[in-house]
Amino acid sequence: MKIKIFYFARLKETLKFSTEDLELPDDAFAQALTILKLKALLAKRSDVWQQMLLGKLKVRGAINHELVDDNAKIVDGDEVAFFPPVTGG
Amino acid sequence: MKIKIFYFARLKETLKFSTEDLELPDDAFAQALTILKLKALLAKRSDVWQQMLLGKLKVRGAINHELVDDNAKIVDGDEVAFFPPVTGG
Amino acid sequence: MTVRVQTEDFDVGFELNQLRHVRKDTGAIVSFVGQVRDLNDGDTVTRLTLEHYPGMTEKALEGIINQAKTRWNFFDALIIHRVGSLKPTDQIVLVAVSGAHRVEAFKACEFIMDFLKTEAPFWKKEVTQDGERWLEAKQSDDLARERWAKTIA
Amino acid sequence: MTVRVQTEDFDVGFELNQLRHVRKDTGAIVSFVGQVRDLNDGDTVTRLTLEHYPGMTEKALEGIINQAKTRWNFFDALIIHRVGSLKPTDQIVLVAVSGAHRVEAFKACEFIMDFLKTEAPFWKKEVTQDGERWLEAKQSDDLARERWAKTIA
């Protein structure tokens, strides 16, 4: 499966990533992929990733432009985004 | 005692009075003058006055630019006003 | 605090721009513009005449802003209300409130409008296809004002 | 319904004037303007950078207006939100709602702002005398949004 991931605000700045295309083998893990499982996968990249995605910072996720919670399922072709709580207005 | 009276909106239009100076003898009646007593006094002028001031129309009173209720006391030199419920904004 | 009663129209953009520059720590400006509707109670309105009580009007409007000040922290407030002869889509009233944050500015602006509607000495007369008629005070406006008695802030 | 995300400033007077002429039976226009404060949490702010999530932002803002539509009768709503680099007293956001009567327009405008603050993907970074900092989401904004869950209308 292929997904696109976007990072915003403090995450983008600290991870030095604004977007990436991620390809995963179509196995049982990918079949059951959720926001939380994707966070855990990405967190393995380094301590900084671990801190940013599973640390003190509250990270919100979106799938295809909709805010979702940690248990939301991700499927092939999805656009996923991670960002801190919003502060506009 | 001398007072000034203003009439507004439907009252002004129907009574054909916008303002008048009223002089009353300084007797017990004047000493105890209230909004309601003044209405009753003016209502004696004609059926139209009776209808306008003591009829179905809710008439609000003001003394010296402050909204007051029927029992508010009127003293020498006061500016009194009678008008229907307000409809601005 | 600014209160103006006038026959001339007003420029909302200009007024809000003035208000938001009163203080550099202003974060929120809430405004209400009321205008003449071409329809009222199902009838087509061609003109609206607004009468007021000069002297008392200004005092009543300032009193309403002062009441709002005792309830919420806001920086400045502006009321402009037109009188005289108006036609549909003409602006009638502008109420604007500036403050550090939005919640207080929203509350104060709505409070000022609810009290203006029920305590400021203005009276409207409409011209419709059936002739002239004085508008009746609405019970919904009294109820809107009474909401504020029930809330602490 | 109009939703715009842009780097350029906007003209509040022009926008409100457009909105109030959408329908001739419009009686009320309520608006909110948010601007950059020169002070935040006691620190002097010299710049503010606003980042957003293109695509999602517009969808989120339209969704918020649609949610408001299910609760109140209003005619039209407008949201303009700036992104990019701003300085104190610059305008950030305009939310405006038009309707027949004021109560619905006030409620809808306040509702849209409360949800914009907590659900629309914008992030602010401030430059102060101590350097740059990302703003933290405020609990008061979450509470402001939760008020709407408790009220029927």
Structure description:
With 89 residues, chain A is α+β, with helices and mostly antiparallel strands. Chain A has helices at residues 9-15, 28-31, 35-43, 47-54, and strands at 2-7, 19-23, 60-63, 66-68, 79-83. Chain A has a five-stranded mixed β-sheet. In chain A, strand 3 and strand 4 form a beta hairpin. The longest helix of chain A is centred in the middle third of the chain and has 9 residues, at 35-43. Chain A is globular, with a radius of gyration of 12 Å. The mean pLDDT of chain A is 97. Chain C has one domain (2-147): Molybdopterin biosynthesis MoaE subunit (Aldehyde Oxidoreductase, domain 3, Alpha-Beta Complex). In chain C, strands 3, 4, 6, 8 and 9 form a five-stranded antiparallel β-sheet that branches. A four-stranded mixed β-sheet of chain C has the order 1-5-7-2, sandwiched between helices. In chain C, helix 2 runs antiparallel to helix 3 (102-119) and helix 3 crosses helix 4. The model of chain C has no long low-confidence stretch (mean pLDDT 96). Chains C and D meet through helix 1, strand 2 and helix 3 of C and helix 1, strand 2 and helix 3 of D.
**Spatial strand order of the main sheet of chain A:** 2-1-5-3-4
Oligomer state of the chains in this structure: heterotetramer
Measured as a percent range, the helix fraction of chain A is: 25-40%
Mean pLDDT of chain A: 97
Distance between the terminal alpha carbons of chain C, to the nearest Å?
A: 21 Å
State the helical fraction of chain C: 25-40%
The gyration radius over C-alpha positions of chain C equals 16 Å
Largest interface chains and counts: C-D, 37 and 37 residues
Mean pLDDT of chain C, to the nearest integer, reads 96
Supply the number of structural domains of chain A.
1
**DSSP strand (E) fraction of chain C?**
35-45%
**CATH architecture tag of chain C:** Alpha-Beta Complex
Q: Please provide the count of β strands of chain C.
A: 9
Number of helices of chain A: 4
Radius of gyration of chain A: 12 Å
**Through-space gap between termini of chain A:** 37 Å
